[in-house]
Amino acid sequence: MVRTRQRQSGHAFTLYLSLINFNFVMSNSLLQLANCPAAIAHLDARFADAATQRAFGGFAILLLDLDNFKSFSEEVGMLAANSVLKTLFERIGNALRDTDFYADLGGDKYLVVVPQISDVETVTLVTTKLIEIIATPISLGGIKKQITASIGVSFFPEHGDDRLSLVSCAGLALAASKHGGGNRATVYSDSLQTAI
């Protein structure tokens, strides 16, 4: 597995900016996952070979946000929060396929690229699994703690034929998930351009 962690509305725009900022370090030593530049390189490589990607069924990108994780970190402390993150990404790594790619964008937001998936039914199986494993309680000092996640999804080639448009669509979908209360996934649709 490639272990890379990594709107035109306000919520999506910060995600949009994170994927055009090349000043991030290449890896996150805590989680042993790569950061934004590796995500950029991975997406750009896919778009450079767009014909092959289409021939093999396209791909989905998932923008994942840990709901209220900043508040959680402040509550339990940085060391405990880091321990929770390690556990979460062990779970995520075990749940994803060897061909899937994930990257840390910073700010408790992550990118997952799932190849050969371009339909809502199949990607829903993936997002449901991720939401469930993230929400599984974690024991912290003998106390069960629960983290939830929101996910926004877009598809290549349906929702864009370049990195920035695809990420922007996924960002709008993520904003819709957050707006709906979190702990859910939303697939991009044109109606989101005016809904959020």
Q: Describe it for me?
A:
It is built from eight helices and nine strands. A hairpin with a 2-residue loop joins strand 6 and strand 7. The chain starts with 9 loop residues before the first helix and ends with a helix. The protein is α+β, with helices and mostly antiparallel strands. The strands form three sheets. Strands 4-5-3-8-9 form a five-stranded mixed beta sheet, with helices on both faces. Strands 1-2 form a two-stranded antiparallel ribbon. 46% of the residues lie in helices and 21% in strands.
Name the structural class: alpha+beta
The proportion of strand residues reads: 15-25%
Radius of gyration: 16 Å
Largest sheet: 5 strands, mixed
Order of helices and strands: HEEHHEHHEEHEEEHEH
Shape: globular
Count of helical segments? Answer: 8
What low-confidence regions span 5 or more consecutive residues with pLDDT below 50?
Answer: 1-14, 20-27
Straight-line distance between termini: 35 Å
Determine the mean pLDDT.
84
Helix content: 40-55%
Strand arrangement, major sheet: 4-5-3-8-9
Instruction: Find the count of extended strands (DSSP E, 2+ residues).
Output: 9
